[in-house]
Amino acid sequence: MSDLSSALQRGAARLGSYVVGAPLPTGLVRFLGVGLTGLAVQTIVFSVLFRFGADKSLAWLIGMLLATGVTWALNRRFTFGASGRRRRHELLRYALVTAVAQGVSFALFHGFLAFLPLIPPQIDVILGAVLATSVSYSGQRFFTFAPADAAADTEPKA
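Given the sequence above, the corresponding C-alpha cells read:
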C-alpha cells in the first residue's frame, strides 16, 4: 500500500471515529472515494453542459452516464474487486443498481429544484447524490460485487 493510500485510510478512520464513533470500514472508505470521483465527473460535466445551454435534465443524465463508467471501473479495481462473473453480467448488475440509486438521486434533484429554487442546481446535484449513496453502496456490495457462486455467469477459467 502506498504512503498516500495509508494516509488516506488513517484519515478516514479518524473521520469515521469523529462522525460515527467508530472507524469506517475500508471498503466503505474506498467506495466513498470512488463516489467522490464520480460526483466530480458528473458535476463538472453537468456544469459545462448547463453553462452552454443544455437542458438541466439532459446535462444531469449525460454527466451520470459518464460518471457511471468511471465509477464501475474504479470500484471493480479498488473497492470490491471482480465478482467472478463475466464482465457483461457484472456490468449489467452494476447498471441496474446504479439506475435505482441514480433514480433516487434524480428524484431528489428535481424535488430540490422544485421546492428549493434559490439553491444553485449544482448543489441540488450534490445533495441528491449524497442521499442516494447508501442505496448504491448496499446494492453494489451485496448484489453487483457479491462473489459469484458456481452459477453459469462466472468467468471461464483460462
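Residues 62 and 98 are 14 Å apart (CA to CA). Try to locate this feature in the C-alpha cell string yourself.
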